[in-house]
Amino acid sequence: MLKTKRKQLILEKISQDNFVTLDDLMCLLDSSESTIRRDLDELEAEGKLHRVHGGAERLPALMSELSNSEKSVKNSHDKQQIAQKAAQLVHDNDVIFLDAGTTTELLIPYLQQANLTVVTNSIHHAARLVDQKIKTIIIGGHVKETTDASIGSVALQQIQQLNFDKAFIGMNGVTEQFLSTPDMEEAVVKSAVIKNATQTYVLADRSKINQVSFVKVSPIDNIGIITQASAGMVLKKIKEKAKVIEV
Asked: Can you say whether the dihedral through the CA atoms of 87, 89, 91, 95 is positive or negative?
């Protein structure tokens, strides 16, 4: 079967079922696993699907976003590894920004550095940091229910007055060109953090790579991206512009 026909059938299957396994595609297309993997890699690089372990899934809608409780059970092992790697980048006497989110939350137990100051826009994060006896500054503003993030003009004004040695932020989409998130107000806050940090690190498990959300936050140039190691074409292209730290 010609490659173009295989790709067409793969996309039709995903459009119908939202998710497809390698085994299903091998039977459907009567092709080898290596051939199917190459087809899926190419389709992902073309932005037409998202690779997951054992298969592929349909791309999410631009404005779709899981709640924190839903995110916390997704790719939890990967997120734990990413958080551990991120903690190694924090030094004594640092002033860091810790974004709201489930992956950034996993970083908190590993923050054992001396004289550390943490600025966060998450009420939940702030409570845990205080319990851990870490000097904590909380950003005010309107609290977004699904992500526990302080957003809006009050949050933005406060962040614009602060500078950070390092910022650790979450992101819904990371492509070879830009970072993106579903919410306009949250995007503005993340963008301000990036501008005011000497170095920003995006904590992104593999499900965020090659995803696009509604609002562009920032180009990936000079951003640090902590994610799983991958031989995929998309991550190779990201490495040409961003500092990728693999776990």
From this structure: negative
